Amino acid sequence: MSPHEDLARQVLAACQTRGIMLATAESCTGGMIAAALTDIPGSSSVVDRGFVTYSNEAKQEMLGVAHSTLEAHGAVSRETALEMAAGALARSRAGVAMAVTGVAGPGGGTAEKPVGLVWFGVAAQGQEPEAECRQFDDLGRDYIRQETVRTALELMLARLKAR
C-alpha cells in the first residue's frame, strides 16, 4: 500500500459522496498519484484515468498544452500546470482533475526553477482551474516525489471539500 493511503481513501470517498470521477495528469511523479489512488480496492468507481505526460510532446498531444505555453513558460510553470489540469478534465469523464509538473532531481534544476520546485493544477467542472506552487527541500528524488503525491492529494481533497 501507498504511504498516502489515508489521504487517498479520503479523496476517493469525497469523490464518491459527490458522485464524480477524477483524473490525474502527472509529469514529475510518473503516475504515482494514480497508483496511490488505485492501490485501494474499489477505486475504479471513482478513478477515470491517469495521464503520464513526462515529455513536452506528451503534454501537448495527450492534454492539449499549447506549444506556445511550453515555449514561453516551460514545462514547470503555473501556466503549464493549469493547462495540464484543464486538459485532463476535458479529455476524461472526470469532474475533478489534478496535475503536477516539477523538478524532482537530482539534476535539471536551474536558479529560476530549482530541484524541488513543483506546480500543482486543479480543475473542476464548472470552475476556473487553480494552480499552486511548492518548493520542497532537495532531500532526494524519492522525497520530492513522495511530497508531491501527498500535497496533490491534500490539494484535491481541499478542492473537493470546497465544492
From TrEMBL:
UniProt cross-references to Pfam families, sorted A to Z: CinA (PF02464)
Domain CinA C-terminal, chain residue ranges per copy: 5-158
NCBIfam families, sorted: PncC_domain
Name by which UniProt lists this protein: CinA family protein
